[in-house]
């Protein structure tokens, strides 16, 4: 058998190579859960739009993006040369949205798809604080490989629906998918629920991550790295790294919600008022270029209602 393994990020790459599993490796270095994405089968247009957005709003150099990210992903076009594509993606939002993209890429760019299998776990008996495959040892991978699950046509169709809804900014469809059966994509539902909680809340405009940060530093000032460590313990469903959490902190600082002195973070009086639902975060932060997939947050009518655990539409 000839295999093409697709890994989500470089954290697993060295360990995976040491496992001696046969096959070629493609590394997905994207973060499709962050920023604007366009719904199209034209990958050249997709990456061009994506690169401009990431460069302008996230400081990711366009040339570096094409060299390190796009060029690697384009190797997926050779998938028909293999008997099986094995996808190694974890349970969290970061991985699950990347997984939807990879399945979209394979479905639209490869003429003859081979068998597609998936290794996706949210825990491991030998890792007490499991957060991802990068915490495993090389000898763990062969056993996981033997336990892989083969995706069926229904799984591919569901992934296509979810990716389309994500790119088109359709939270109601995503909510419906998250509450229904997801076949062999067993972690998709919880990940989509976590995504929807990134919408501004109906109470104060904070999303789940912003509210978490404010609540933590409301109780006491914290060093940023201690705050991140607590976030990774309590909200591992997101799978975010330092880069994404830094963006959250910087935006909240600019909005006047928190202050930073050296490594120490503290809440401001405005931050307390927002947390107590006396002010709205969205009144103090620019949403003009903020996107959740294909949903532009500026003038967006969709909110998350934590009391009902649902997406609701509000009139500005």
Secondary structure class reads: alpha/beta
Percent of residues in beta strands: 15-25%
Helix content: 40-55%
Number of domains: 2
Assigned CATH class of the largest domain: Alpha Beta
Compute the number of helices.
12
Strands in their spatial order, largest beta sheet: 2-1-4-5-6
CATH architecture of the largest domain: 3-Layer(aba) Sandwich
Summarize the structure.
This is DUF1835 domain-containing protein. By secondary structure, this protein is α/β, with parallel strands linked by helices.
Detailed description of the structure:
- A hairpin with a 4-residue loop joins strand 12 and strand 13 (310-313).
- The strands form four sheets. The chain has a five-stranded mixed sheet. Strands 3-10-11 form a three-stranded mixed sheet. It has a three-stranded antiparallel sheet with strand order 7-9-8.
- The chain has two domains: 3-195, Dna Topoisomerase Vi A Subunit, Chain: A, domain 2; 198-313, Winged helix-like DNA-binding domain superfamily/Winged helix DNA-binding domain (Arc Repressor Mutant, subunit A, Orthogonal Bundle).
- The protein has helices spanning 13-18, 43-58, 62-73, 93-109, 141-146, 153-167, 171-179, 188-196, 208-219, 224-234, 242-254, 269-275; strands at 3-8, 24-28, 35-36, 84-88, 115-119, 149-150, 222-223, 258-261, 264-267, 291-293, 295-296, 302-305, 310-313.
- 42% of the residues lie in helices and 15% in strands.
- It is globular.
- With 316 residues, the protein is of the alpha/beta class.
- The chain contains twelve helices and 13 strands.
């Amino acid at each position: 058998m000839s295999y093409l393994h697709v890994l989500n990020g470089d954290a697993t790459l060295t360990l995976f190579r040491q496992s001696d599993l046969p096959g070629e490796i493609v590394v997905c270095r994207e973060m499709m859960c962050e920023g604007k994405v366009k719904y199209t089968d034209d990958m050249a247009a997709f990456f061009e739009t994506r690169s401009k957005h990431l460069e302008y709003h996230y400081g990711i150099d366009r040339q570096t993006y094409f060299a390190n990210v796009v060029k690697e992903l384009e190797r997926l076009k050779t998938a028909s040369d293999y008997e099986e594509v094995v996808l190694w993606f974890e349970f969290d939002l970061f991985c699950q949205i990347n997984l939807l993209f990879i399945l979209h890429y394979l479905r639209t760019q490869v003429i003859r798809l081979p068998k597609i299998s998936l290794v996706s776990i949210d825990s491991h008996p030998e890792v007490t604080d499991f957060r991802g495959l990068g915490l495993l040892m090389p000898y763990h991978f062969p056993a996981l490989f033997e336990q892989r699950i083969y995706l069926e046509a229904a799984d591919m169709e569901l992934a296509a629906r979810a990716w389309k809804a994500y790119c088109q900014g359709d939270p109601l469809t995503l909510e419906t998918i998250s509450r229904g059966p997801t076949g062999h994509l067993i972690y998709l539902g919880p990940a989509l629920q976590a995504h929807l909680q990134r919408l501004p809340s109906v109470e104060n405009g904070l999303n789940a991550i912003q509210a978490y940060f404010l609540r933590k530093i409301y109780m006491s000032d914290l060093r940023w790295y201690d705050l991140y460590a607590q976030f990774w313990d309590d909200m591992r469903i997101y799978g975010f790294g330092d880069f994404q959490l830094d963006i959250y902190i910087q935006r909240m600082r600019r909005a006047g919600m928190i202050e930073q002195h050296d490594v120490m973070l503290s809440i401001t009086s405005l931050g307390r008022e927002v947390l107590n639902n006396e002010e709205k975060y969205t009144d103090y932060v620019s949403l003009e270029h903020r996107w959740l997939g294909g949903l532009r947050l500026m003038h967006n009518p969709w909110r998350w209602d934590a009391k009902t655990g649902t997406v609701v539409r509000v009139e500005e």
